[in-house]
Design a protein that fits this description.
The chain is an all-beta fold and 60 residues long. Helices cover 0% and strands 17% of the residues. A 3-stranded antiparallel sheet has the order 2-1-3, with no helix packed on it.
Length: 60
């Protein structure tokens, strides 16, 4: 399971946790989220998410 981060606002999508509010159960891979989905925090499109790495911590 991976984590993905929105480079616009820093929102993190954790595949292991999913997102109950968005309707994604735990274990939902980022690749299975619809392409028209937007960041729940800033509205950015899915294509601005990148794999989360510790190097992003504290930068956004």
């Amino acid at each position: 399971m991976m984590k993905w981060i929105c480079i616009t606002c820093g929102h993190i999508y954790d595949e292991a946790l999913g997102d109950k509010h968005e309707g994604f159960p735990p274990g939902t891979p980022f690749s299975q989220i619809p392409d028209d989905w937007c960041c729940p925090d800033c509205g950015a499109t899915k294509d601005v998410y990148v794999p989360y790495e510790e190097k992003w911590a504290g930068l956004i």
